[in-house]
Amino acid sequence: MPRDPLIGLVGKPSAGKSSTLNSLTDASSKVGGFTTIDPQRAIGYLQIDCACARYGLSDRCKPNYGSCVNGRRSVPIELLDVAGLVPGAHQGKGLGNKFLDDLRHADALIHVVDVSGTTDAEGKNTRGYDPSVDIAWLRSEIVAWIKGNLMEKWGSIKRRHVAVKATAVETLQNQFSGYGSTSAVVARTLDKLGLKEPLEEWSEETIDRVVNAFTDEKFPTVIALNKIDHPDADKNIAKIAKMQDPNNIVLCSAISEIFLRKLAKQGYIRYTEGSEFVDTREDLIAEGDPDGGGLKELDEKNRARIENLRDMVLYRFGSTGVVQVLSKAAEILGLVPVFPVRNTTTFGSGSGDSKAVFRDCVLVKKNSTVADVARKIMGDAPIAYVEGPGGIRIAEDQIVSVGKNDILSFKVGK
Ligand SMILES: Nc1nc2c(ncn2[C@@H]2O[C@H](COP(=O)(O)OP(=O)(O)OP(=O)(O)O)[C@@H](O)[C@H]2O)c(=O)[nH]1
User: Fold this and answer.
1) Among the atoms of ligand 1, which is closest to the Cα of residue 257?
2) Closest atom, ligand 1, to C-alpha of 84
3) Which of 94, 187, 242, 381 is the most buried (most CB within 10 A)?
4) Cα 20 to middle of ligand 1, angstroms
5) Can you give the residue ranges of the OBG-type G domain (predicted)?
6) CA separation (Å) from 280 to 255, 260, 274, 284?
7) In this structure, which topology does domain 144-213 adopt according to CATH?
8) Could you tell me the pTM of the whole model?
């Protein structure tokens, strides 16, 4: 059965992994008993456009897990904190191989980079460190680890490859299945490279290229430039933006998000998670609400901190960025939210609160078919047919995508 997507957070010590994880997991939308699964795994909330908005049913949308406010739905997604990576990890430094073993299970990575330059490669306090270096060494650790595992056995891999007349995809998939790879991932990797020589004649340079391309396919990575609230961040952001694909970069400030959510929870401010909108009691009074929205009065210190955060983060960058970090990871993975329903006219689930709609939502990878989704949700139950909105039959080989074949009802046969 296809398993749920898993996103790993990586980065050197003190880059802000735990803070980012906390800012993503402590959503006020937390319902259904989700907390940290173990010290390393947690549930974050991915924001998506919910199907309820398409049908004007937002007031009756009641997710079983997560929440939905005016058609913006928070869907739970599993996150993994992969701590302890330092240069030399593939040779066992730091938590080394333990770190790399944890990484195997991730479908995409968020590399949290301390863009303030106030921590060195090992996470020790400093000033003026160049964080662009971290992006290169972290990736090269992953590549070196995969390559090392492959080269250790390359002689026998080659001999077996020739003896059983395997294809390159078969032989490599044998080696890469431990990283959660599939034949499709390996095939895409090799297609992109268009190699001419047979596997048994690959030079070390060719193997390097194969491992690099495989790393790109298997571990697509979002670069989260964290600590943008720090005054030294600007020049480092500019430098990294020139070196990396801007499409994979998100700017964020994890402590700002944690601070705003905390004050909102305590009733001092009104804050829409992940947005640029923060209102204090004073703001609301100035806007004509004599009661100040029922908010508590901020003390001088927190008022100054909010002002500073508006200037340094919210007005300049549009938000604290952490919600966008997760959305970007979902985007590079191509996750599609699918809404299984019992009834394709009312969109109800046919149990419990009978007026509630779109109670369930699952995230599947791009290019999944209706049959893939059926297996994920219904397991081995025999499916007689599948219906979309309005009771229209949908063929099992259809691809699901946002807005198309993403509301499904599985009718079980006898
Ligand atoms: N200025 C600033 N500091 C931050 C931000 N996020 C985290 N920090 C600080 O950076 C330090 C390290 O943060 P952590 O979240 O513990 O970092 P980590 O990557 O989990 O570190 P390890 O647990 O050692 O791997 C803490 O002192 C945080 O308060 C941020 O957005 N801005």
Assistant:
1) 31
2) 25
3) 94
4) 8
5) 5-272
6) 19, 11, 17, 6
7) Helicase, Ruva Protein; domain 3 (1.10.8)
8) 0.90
